[in-house]
Design brief:
single chain, alpha+beta, four-stranded antiparallel sheet, 3 helices
């Protein structure tokens, strides 16, 4: 009986060690390494408000959303290439998480919403995150600050899809973006 217990115990320890080596150890090494990776400079201005007005047409009716975009520095993050970069978040003055253009159901009967997404790094003057390399082929005023995304609720929780083209936005959802007027991005310095 003792020999059988020792064998089971040895196998359990062996499986635990293999699991640790495969799952936990690589993440631990990456975390420790990320501590020592040099961080880019911190922004001089960490929070700013940008009043905006969005005008769009949905199913033939013109709609206007006026609110304030509140952008804030969220800290540093290490990406999969072991490079640290600044991260930014935004919220709206109205308390909403995002600008919702349309809500309804998709083809599968799942709840869906179309959102106007904004890149806070653009408005906070973080040109490093809005580099041409990340957004090839786009003009400066088209990069890194506005995209329309579709989100839907499924059995697995809130899932996001890829950005929607203006053509698909009109043909599938009857939405046309008319204008986006927002306070100009700030000139930020990094120290």
């Amino acid at each position: 009986m003792k020999k059988k217990t020792k064998v089971v115990f040895t196998i359990a320890i062996f499986l635990f060690l293999i699991s640790f080596i495969i799952v936990i150890l690589p993440w631990s090494i990456m975390y420790i390494y990320s501590i020592f990776v040099p961080a880019p400079p911190y922004p001089q201005i960490e929070k700013e408000e940008f009043p905006f007005k969005l005008v769009y047409e949905c199913d033939g009716k013109q709609r206007t959303i006026e609110d304030t975009l509140i952008c804030e520095f969220a800290g540093m993050e290490c990406d999969s290439n072991f490079k640290k970069h600044r991260t930014w978040t935004y919220k709206l003055g109205s308390g909403q998480d995002t600008i919702v253009l349309w809500t309804g159901e998709n083809d599968k009967g799942e709840k869906q919403k179309i959102c106007y997404e904004i890149g806070p790094e653009y408005y906070m003057g973080d040109d490093e995150l809005c580099s041409q390399e990340e957004y090839p082929g786009q003009k400066q005023n088209e990069r890194c600050f506005v995209e329309v995304w579709t989100y839907y609720d499924s059995d697995y929780g809130d899932i996001e899809e890829m950005p929607i083209s203006k053509k698909k936005l009109l043909s599938k959802y009857g939405i046309t973006l008319i204008s986006w007027d927002c306070k100009a991005p700030i000139k930020n310095t990094f120290r």
